[in-house]
Amino acid sequence: MKLRAPLLLVVGLLIAADAKEDTKKDTEKIQGTWKAIKGEKNGKEAGPDDLKDMRLVFKDDKLTIQEGIGRNIEATFKLDAGAKLREIDITIKRDNESGTIKGLYMLDGDDLKICLPLGGPGKERPKEFATKEGSGLGILTLKRDK
Asked: Is the pLDDT of residue 8 over 80?
């Protein structure tokens, strides 16, 4: 019995170290410009005009959301690859809207998906990577812009 607690502690520390390393790798992999190719809100697909000029630019811990010519939102971001579903926190600081939007992400090579609650900061993090009618969630699918 006495051996069990130190063993659990060591296992816990190894898992935490792996999660931290995975987060660091994902933070490096996400760097660059991503073009929105598909969007979904409350289970309904966004129209092509809604996304045609949207890009997300990740640089260090900064995120610029480009919604069109001259329409940019500046934010910071933080990833957590150690969570059961990988988490992204996007912190916006603007005059009319400030706070952290808590979402989920999937990163696979040149493909990125982000699931966020609709309506801005202060909402609960999604529990699953899906949108349904009335869910209050949106999913943005992006492709690395080369």
From this structure: no
